[in-house]
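Pilot study result, target chain (125 residues):
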Amino acid sequence: MHEQDVSLTIYGIKNCDTMKKARRWLDEAQLPYRFHDYRADGVTGELLQGFIRRTDWRVLLNTRGTTWRKLGEEQRRQAEDAAGALALMLSQPAIIKRPVLQRQDGALLVGFDPAEYQKFTGRGV
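Predicted structure:
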């Protein structure tokens, strides 16, 4: 597969069950994609700012996961605005909701739902 053939990038963490479901869906739909692992490939302020320009930062902040539950009250209060949430996501990438699917045109889809993936990609499984 050539890099120019890849029109999707999926961001997340390799061992996340939801990520595995999303990647399996993309594979079954025969859609080439690039996988960006937050742990292996890193997370930059520039990447997150790009996400925040395309979707609400509240959508990106996973307040239902283990990482959020382990935070102290002071750290949770830090995420009450976009700047604080950005800082928290940079320091704790596992708190970013997964997966984030990005098309080549920059459009984002956060989370995994097969019907939404079908609409977003124009392909079905």
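One observation from the pilot: The beta strands are 8-12, 33-37, 100-103, 108-110. A full batch analysis is planned for the follow-on phase.
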